[in-house]
Design goal:
Oligomer: homodimer
Helix content of chain A: 25-40%
Distance between the termini of chain A: 31 Å
Shape of chain A: globular
Largest interface: A-B, 87 and 87 residues
CATH superfamily of the largest domain in chain A: PurM-like C-terminal domain
CATH class of the largest domain in chain A: Alpha Beta
Number of strands of chain A: 13
Strand content of chain A: 15-25%
Strand order of the largest sheet of chain A: 8-10-7-11-9-12-13
Structural class of chain A: alpha+beta
Chain lengths: 347, 347
């Protein structure tokens, strides 16, 4: 028996314990249980079914002083859409639960619903149900989503092999820059790039088209979405694949928003990009010989691209090497239960 | 624009607004969207897919002074299993989100997880994923569940026709009696029947076997589960079917626990049974000529049975007639946003 609070024993330990409990419920039709971006279920009819959920809580994941109700709803849906993308799948239907204090105005509640609906519609997903419940506490929005993926396109966190190239789509750090700009009260009026950063933080987009393009090549070996940041997420992919990774820091594609905000605040932009979460870009691996084909599939979408930022190694270590060959220390993971309640603790 | 709080405009109005918004997202593969016990999705491969969610919040749906963590997890899962039952379906997989303050002990969190897992296992459902998030507020547990139903076994709230018999499985009022016993601080030691009532309130069971037996006859015309109580739920079934119902109060099968607790507290047992929620019995309709076949299917399960409590009428009115032919007023619906925060406001 351990009666210590979650904030002392740590989120990871509690999650591990939950997963161990849940593993006893998994029958043969469950291809992948807890621990990946989404669970994978085989209904025995060709395609595989994906199921996942993600919750957002006021004063932990968002603040009303910074985010509109529409943005809160939008982001709650996008987090889930992104998890379906990360499996190589296509989202179909979502349900959303909203816990709200009785003194929340109808307009704020409707704004959250409008944001949920806008993101679902934008990405071809139906909002098919939900639950509205009262709460004496903060607003909480929980979305559960299901989707489908063809067996040959399914991409898990496990599957990366030594020698594989490590890639990310797009650029990193814009969302972290937006959060930093909010926290440090940089004024949006300072420039449109700052506005872009703040928008990246509040109104992210899932990389569904990119994920489908990558999955359609059937050449990638592992994939996940960057929801907590490269420093946290890459070790998870490596751990599940039983491998390590060497990242070349100068290869990491920095968002211009990130460089701007970091310089304005006297911070290291690379560190901001690596440790900041919520970019929802895709992190994936592929044999070096398949990178060209994957890039071609992405460029068919327009200006989308992926960047090789390092390689998978056999040693179970995750190292970011700077331009001089030195090791850059990775930031500590985001723990919902540690530290002050901010939108995202990116320390 | 209406800036009034939810508790003033009422839960029903906010839910209606959410449903109207969500309806814009429903494509042709969505057979049933928001408003039934679960959504129905047609993946185009024979069986229909069911998806629903239900949230429980500390001090609204449960109190730690009355319920153990295991009971909270159990009930959160059972609510969802019951919604799949209400469609005539079989549950397959669930995901669960837990919002918890950092000072919640690991043991309490694990107890909730154990309850979720126990109910899932008991009813052949896999717990395939979840989300653990911090919260400055009360514990909230949200479960989303998916399942399957053959097209010919699908039972919606709509479908009841004038002349149909109205039936309920089992007995009503045990859970309401358990809640009343808790609220009025009746001692469990007073008798084992009281313990049964309290157990009915905290450890309900979904009527999955009964629902499958009823659905397998393909004779029932509409069905739902009694989660908020007959007084609230029957009008919903009638509204969706565009019909009314006349209930004969003396036909309503009262749980013995309900009669005991009501008499102990000087309350009307019939009113307690009709207005109390969380029995999770099934309310359904069928042509009078099919009742015998349905009863036979239920009795094949052992001592399970359903009782004819009235009939469906064309007039869109829901009336409970007492033994003298007088009308009994139905209690007001449970609104999560009105009244004091108790486990269940059954007034």
């Amino acid at each position: 028996m351990d009666n210590r609070p979650i904030k002392d024993v740590g989120e990871n330990r509690v999650v591990s314990r939950f997963r161990a409990l849940a593993s006893g419920t998994l029958g043969s039709e469950i291809v992948v249980g807890p621990g990946d971006d989404a669970a994978v279920i085989n209904p025995g009819q060709g395609r595989l079914l994906l199921l996942t959920c993600d919750m957002m809580v006021q004063d932990v994941h968002f603040r009303w002083e910074w985010a509109s109700p529409h943005q809160v709803g939008w982001k709650a849906m996008v987090q889930n859409l992104s998890d379906i993308a990360a499996m190589g799948g296509e989202p179909t239907a979502a349900v959303a639960s909203l816990a709200a204090p009785g003194d929340l105005s109808e307009e704020v509640a409707a704004g959250i619903a409008e944001g949920l609906v806008a993101a679902a519609s934008r990405y071809g997903t139906a909002l098919v149900g939900g639950d509205l419940v009262g709460s004496p506490g903060p607003v909480a929005v929980d979305v559960a989503i299901m989707g489908w993926v063809e067996r040959e396109r399914l991409l898990l966190r496990r599957g990366a092999g030594p020698g594989d190239a490590l890639l990310v789509t797009g650029h990193l750090g814009a969302a972290a820059a937006g959060l930093a700009a909010r926290e440090q009260r940089l004024e949006e009026a300072e420039g449109s790039l700052l506005g872009e950063a703040i928008r990246a933080h509040h109104e992210p987009h899932p990389r569904l088209a990119e994920a489908r393009a990558i999955a359609s090549t059937a050449k990638a070996t592992a994939m996940m979405d960057l929801s907590d940041g490269l420093a946290d997420d890459l070790p998870r992919l490596c751990q599940q694949s039983g491998v390590g990774a060497h990242v070349r820091s100068e290869k990491i594609p920095l968002a211009r928003e990130c460089s701007l905000v970091a310089s304005r605040l006297g911070l290291n932009d690379l560190r901001m990009a690596v440790s900041g979460g919520e970019d929802y870009e895709l992190l994936f691996t592929a044999p070096p010989g398949a990178v060209g084909e994957i890039q071609a599939a992405l460029s068919d979408l327009g200006d989308r691209r992926a960047t090789v930022i390092g390689e998978i190694v056999e040693e179970e270590e995750v190292i970011v090497l700077d331009a001089d060959g030195g090791e850059m220390a990775l930031g500590k993971g985001f723990d919902h239960f540690a530290g002050p309640a901010t939108e995202r603790n990116d320390d």
